[in-house]
Amino acid sequence: MSAMLELSDVEVRYGRLVALRGLSLEVHKGEVVCLIGPNGAGKSTAMAAIAGGVPRVAGSIRLNGQELPARKPEQIARLGLSLVPEGRHVFGTLTVEENLRVGGFLRGNARESAAALERVAGYFPRLKERWTSPAGRLSGGEQQMLSIGRALMTNPRLVMVDEPSLGLAPLIVDAVYEILLELREREGLTLLINEQSSHRILRFADRIYVIRNGTIQLHGTAEALRDGEAIKAAYFGFKGTGANANVVEGAKA
Ligand SMILES: Nc1ncnc2c1ncn2[C@@H]1O[C@H](COP(=O)(O)OP(=O)(O)OP(=O)(O)O)[C@@H](O)[C@H]1O
Ligand SMILES: [Mg+2]
């Protein structure tokens, strides 16, 4: 089976800094794939490269077998790919509804746009209650939901969510993940999710990639990686797992 999204040997640099060095991964239709890694590992850069936000100096990124154009974010969005950026970035003075309408800018006609709004409201009843509130007044969890809702306005087939749990209370994070899984279940949405911690994703993901220093260190099914030991070793760059078990006690991975 060919992958829906396939990155091979992608390299991205910021000036002299090599942020992605030969990054390869694939996401199949209907999968929930998590990319986990520490601060500065290259997770956000990987998503930016896919979404066309940063130039790549080498490698290929394919969606349904077609090479994605580099640095053409709008064109890529039209191909059914949507990014929920790290840190949410809602427009604080605009209402919930207005924020969602901004997300639907690619939709030409009013009827489609109204249908998309209704669909998002259905998935996020909490947003519906806050429809006319300025987004800046929402809680962190509500802003995260708004940010996801906005990404859904273009009716994407593949959604990338960059650190959805950042700064949110555990129960709220669970609620966000439940909605993401419901979207997968009901709409066949495919998800690529960045996280710094493997704690939750072992429950929610189908497959996991561990990234460090701009390259994939380990990947496998959540089932195979369930005990977390191999993930910890890859995440922190340990040679073996047992001897270092104490080092990772209480650490985020
Ligand atoms: N706009 C930029 N200009 C220069 N360097 C950058 C830029 N964005 C990221 N970097 C650097 O590229 C590397 C990868 O960063 P990236 O943000 O992709 O990591 P990350 O895994 O998303 O980290 P975090 O968990 O902190 O979000 C880091 O060394 C970072 O400092
Ligand atoms: Mg990041």
Q: Which structural traits does this protein have?
A:
6-stranded mixed β-sheet; binds magnesium ion; single chain; Rossmann fold; binds adenosine-5'-triphosphate; 253 residues; alpha/beta; disordered C terminus; globular
In short:
The protein is an alpha/beta fold and 253 residues long. The chain has a single domain (5-244), classed as Rossmann fold.
Rounded radius of gyration (Å): 18 Å
Question: Uncertain spans, ≥5 residues at pLDDT below 50?
Answer: 241-253
Q: What is the CATH homologous superfamily assignment?
A: P-loop containing nucleotide triphosphate hydrolases
- By DSSP (H or I, 4+ residues per run), the number of helices equals 9
Order of helices and strands: EEEHEEHEHHHHEHEHEEH
Helix content: 25-40%
For the terminal residues, how far apart are their CA atoms?
31 Å
- Number of DSSP strand runs: 10
Question: Mean pLDDT across all residues, rounded?
Answer: 90
Query: What is the level 1 CATH name?
Result: Alpha Beta
Q: Give the domain tally.
A: 1
Strand order of the largest sheet: 6-7-8-3-9-10
What does this structure look like?
InterPro entries: AAA+_ATPase, ABC_transporter-like_ATP-bd, ABC_transporter-like_CS, BCAA_Transport_ATP-bd_LivF, P-loop_NTPase. Residues 5-238 form the ABC transporter domain. It comes from Acidisoma cellulosilyticum. GO terms for molecular function: ATP binding; ATP hydrolysis activity; branched-chain amino acid transmembrane transporter activity. Keywords: Amino-acid transport, ATP-binding, Nucleotide-binding, Transport. With 253 residues, this protein is an alpha/beta fold. It has a single domain (5-244), classed as P-loop containing nucleotide triphosphate hydrolases (Rossmann fold). Helix content is 34%, strand content 25%. It is built from 9 helices and 10 strands. It has helices spanning 43-51, 73-78, 96-103, 110-123, 125-129, 140-152, 170-187, 201-204, 229-236; strands at 5-14, 17-27, 32-36, 58-63, 66-67, 81-84, 158-162, 190-195, 207-212, 215-221. It has a 6-stranded mixed beta sheet with strand order 6-7-8-3-9-10, sandwiched between helices. A 4-stranded antiparallel beta sheet has the order 2-1-4-5, covered by helices on one side. The chain is globular and about 55 Å long. The two termini are 31 Å apart. The structure holds adenosine-5'-triphosphate and magnesium ion. Adenosine-5'-triphosphate (ATP) binds next to β2 and α1.
